[in-house]
Amino acid sequence: MLGLALAGLLAAALPASLAAQGLRQESGSVAADVPLLQAETLAVWEAPEADQGVAVDEDHFYAVDNSVIAKYSLTDGALVAKWEGDPERIAHLNSCYAEQGKLWCANSNYPAAPMGSSVEVFDTGTLEHVASHSLGMTEEGSLTWFAPMGNGFLAAFAHYDRRGAEYKDHRYSALVTFDKEWRRTGGWMFPPSITERMAPHAASGGAIGHDGRLYVTGHDRPEMYVLEAPEAGPYLVHVATISLDIEGQAFAFSPDGDSTILVVDRTNGLVRRIRLPLIPSP
Fold first, then answer.
1. Is the CB of residue 97 less than 8 Å from the CB of residue 124?
2. Structural domains in the chain?
3. Which of 76, 82, 163, 279 places its Cα 20 to 30 Å from the Cα of 112?
4. pLDDT digits (tens, 9 = 90+) for 126-154
């Protein structure tokens, strides 16, 4: 039943994606040393569940922590509702994004091995769990985040040093494209300039910005990486690094089309609204 419901949800959600035509492609030469930019914190809310990531819609933000989702008011930061799941079924919600009244969440069996992943869907009004789609065991690793793109999805998979599959470390983390039925259609590798800084972990957060670029955060460094699709070859192009007051993990762009994001401060149990800087043209 849930599988059939998910197919309908996918069809409804995909046309509203932030970047319907795909990732912005780099249009000129990229310097060997990418620019380091600075972001600005605009607001802070308390949210003890702010550990794995945060999603946001017009009126609320949603703090995510493994088997818990907490809904807060953007107006006054008040807790509105909370979902607490069975960790035997939904063990590790890595990230979620809000679209058309639904929370679309990446779930994995971390830290177990072999790695398995699923997509879990919740109603933003009630936080009721309404659909699930299992990816099962994937060679790509653990699903950490995904986003709608074109007629399908852009998804990040993580490998970690010293976790189960000894033959694959953090360098094997990658970005994969799927159609709306979750059939693989392509993908990219993260450039070494990023994977080296995310080691021994991988990209814990990511989203396509309103400018069509890909914005990615790691597991613990207080920085964000800006990427574009290459003109040729398998590696994404690293165009900028942004310093910001976080510790990695999943984030979400504000739905109003500006350059602000919401992101977790997991050490202090906070959600921060941060304005990103303008990305310079090459």
1. no
2. 2-275 (2.40.128.630)
3. 82
4. 999 999 999 998 877 889 999 999 899 99
